Amino acid sequence: MSAPSSPNIFDQWDTYHKVVAANFMFHREIAEALRRALAARFSGRRPAFLDLGCGDATALAPVLREQPPSRYQGVDLSETALELAARELADLPCPVTLTHGDILEALDEDDSHDAIHSSFVLHHLPTERKAEFFRRAARQLAPDGLLLLVDVVREEDESLDDYFRRYCGWLRREWTSLSAEEQDAICDHLVNNDLPEAYSTLVALARAAGLRETPGGVHYGAHRLICFARG
Ligand SMILES: C[S@@+](CC[C@H](N)C(=O)[O-])C[C@H]1O[C@@H](n2cnc3c(N)ncnc32)[C@H](O)[C@@H]1O
User: Which CATH number fits the domain that encloses residue 133?
Assistant: First the structure.
């Protein structure tokens, strides 16, 4: 699997950092929901945690500090992101491994994880690769584990073009602390790289892989957390 085809704005961490810091993609509310889902599933237990497309880990780090895993493995295609993540996670009281690589390759290893988390990454893959993601995640998830999928989703029956029009229109109205150039770069990245599915498609792909949705999900506009377990 190759890196996204157009220049990756997520290698320009300044812009993405501004987006996360301003909470434009609801990272804060989603982190709250993640905290609740992890506490409900692993109360008193420290899960082995795999973070696919970890980025710089700034949004997740407070959750991990509050509920430390037994070990944290982060995977990302961006070296820059991994360097920032190493700093962000330096004080976690558990072994931290950060690997430069593709999320599907990381799921191809002979390993088992209690929690598999992937935030705002899966929409980069075409539908058949998403199906493969769910199959591999189901294989690697511990029997009582949790797959925590955060991503943007299209409305049911919304075309990709309509989705881009809607999302970019909203972004240009609401993300006003970004310059017009930064907004343009983000919209350009979305139109050239993103392939978000409808929520029902993600759930169907997961179900076909032997995963069922469990309580704990939330959504804010197009931004969604879906929790899955085996069985
Ligand atoms: C929008 S950022 C999300 C970062 C972080 N997870 C968050 O929620 O803020 C997407 C991240 O996924 C990484 N990425 C995209 N496709 C990937 C792939 N196929 N394998 C590994 N990382 C990928 C990018 O390098 C980037 O760091």
Answer: 3.40.50.150
